Amino acid sequence: MEMTGESTVRILHPSGKESTAFMDNAWLTYSRDMESRREMLERYIRTVTKIDDSSDPLSRGSVVAIVKDSTYMSMFNQEHNVASEHLCGDLWIVYAEDLPDRTSSLLKDRLQDAGIEDDELRNLAKENLRRILPPTQRHGDGPWYMMTAGGDYTASLLLFDGLWEALADSVEGSVVAVAPSRDVLLYTGSQSKEGIAAIRQRAAEILATGNYLISETLITRAGGRWEVFKAN
User: Fold this and answer.
1) Whose CA is closest to 44, among 55, 33, 54, 59?
2) How far is residue 42's CA from residue 31's CA, in Å, rounded to a whole number?
3) DSSP class of residue 60?
4) For residue range 124-166, what is the model confidence (pLDDT) as tens digits?
5) Cβ-Cβ contacts under 8 Å for 76 (sequence gap 6 or more)
6) Sheet of 18-22, strand order
7) Angle at CA 64, nearest 5°, toward 9 and 129?
8) Which residues face 177 on adjacent strands?
9) How far apart are alpha carbons 215 and 20 in whole angstroms?
């Protein structure tokens, strides 16, 4: 194991395969929960030492899409060739393998070896998410709301266009959303000053105290796509 950045660890496995572990979320959990530190470290070490993503064939049914930010993307060296695409602003779609004990980012070469083409990747990942996600729940009475769908892939709800078309009538103006962490998604309407202020504040609170953080960037629907929200 070798530290290659402030919170990045390069791991060379006995098989000769190489992987990268990112310690940011582990550090956040470790620093905020003194009573569970030993349990957290043991769980994390078990997970990291089992990582050898290229040793087993990739199942098409395990490919999912997760939402990350530019900081996360900057952790990868160019040679990693992580399967990803830009969503908008500082948000990225990263393709990953859903495993029983973790989610592991996928390299393009591994997708190609599995016969998964670029033009089918997003739809395949969304189909798999539909199958594994628990029912989506909306919390709040307006003018802003919180969406949840389990603990791992709530932010990935941003990728389901039909969902946001259905929710458009529940807000004033166009939908404005923010994904401060992987398990929380907030939204309101572009014409609601109260709603905009509320989701900004709530996102900031989550980013200051939560785990598995993503971004405080507000985004809005325009022409069936997401773009960075610019308040008037």
Assistant:
1) 33
2) 15
3) G
4) 999 999 999 999 999 999 999 999 998 889 999 999 999 999 9
5) 20, 82, 105
6) 2-3, 8-12, 18-22
7) 140
8) 187, 219
9) 22
Per-residue pLDDT, averaged over 106-112, amounts to 90
**Burial (Cβ within 10 Å: 0-12, 13-18, ≥19) of residue 47:** middle
Overall pTM surpassing 0.85 (yes/no)? no
What CA–CA distance (Å, rounded) separates 169 from 161?
14
φ, ψ for residue 127, nearest 5 deg: -60, -45
Kindly report the length of the chain.
232
User: What b/e string do you get for 166-191 counting C-beta neighbours within 10 Å, with b at 16 or more?
Assistant: ebeeebeeebbbbbbbbbbbbbbbbe
179 to 118, 159, 189, 200: CA distances (angstroms): 25, 12, 15, 10
Q: ∠ at Cα 149 (148, 150), nearest 5°? A: 110
Single-letter amino acid code for the residue at 215? S
The answer to whether the CB of 70 falls within 8 A of the CB of 92 is yes
Quickly tell me which residue has 């620093």 as its tokens: 31
The residue assigned the tokens 């008037």 is 232
